[in-house]
Amino acid sequence: MIRSLYTLLAVLFATIASAQTAPSLDCEVRFIGMVDAYDLEPVIEQLQEASSSCAEVTLIIESGGGEVSVGWFFLPDLAELNLHTHIRGNAGSMAVPLFLAGDRRTMDNDATLFLHNILQGFAEGNFDAATLREIADGLDEDDRKYAAYVASRTSLSVEQVLALMEEDTTLSASEAYIYGFADGRETH
After folding, report:
1. Could you tell me if residue 81 is left (phi over 0), alpha (psi between -120 and 50 degrees) or otherwise beta?
2. According to the 3-state scheme, what is the secondary structure of 105-117?
3. What pTM does this model have?
4. For residues 171 and 62, what is the distance between their CA atoms, to the nearest angstrom?
5. Which fold has domain 24-185?
6. What is the DSSP code string of 51-103?
7. pLDDT (tens digit, 9 = 90+) per residue, 3-43?
8. How deeply is 59 buried, as exposed, middle or buried, from its count of CB atoms within 10 A (0-12, 13-18, 19+)?
């Protein structure tokens, strides 16, 4: 009877010890939605929380893109993490730099990346030629900033990225690997 009590206590203490050392958070966070503060901020918070107990955090991306300024705002937060980014489906527009923030980057075999020139939507208003030229100059500047970041994280030059953006290019997982966007392909 005493031996079974000792066995029971040993099992109980082992269970408690393993529960204390097991990660309490999932190390995989999903981002499905638009690159905007409403959708992206909670994802960043989940990644930061998970990184406190995970050696590597995985960000699963399925996003057509969104607001350029929001993407640039949150990019430094991603750079602070030991981050594996993975595309399931599509990552387009401003979701591409978020994907490229990963230290390790993978895609599903049938996933795609979409690159295009930065777009500016107009809610309302009348604009004269000088204002439109100023807006166009700002878009050209945004295109170069985007292309420079993409080039810094891939095997492409800024000029090559700008050419892909001009053509509204969709890259397959195989092409993304060849151009250095992705390190490999795997399924999540």
Report:
1. beta
2. EEECCCCEEEECC
3. 0.83
4. 15
5. 2-enoyl-CoA Hydratase; Chain A, domain 1 (3.90.226)
6. HTT-SSEEEEEEE--B-HHHHHHHHHHHHTS-EEEEEEEEEETTHHHHHHT-S
7. 554 444 344 444 444 333 333 348 999 999 999 999 999 99
8. buried
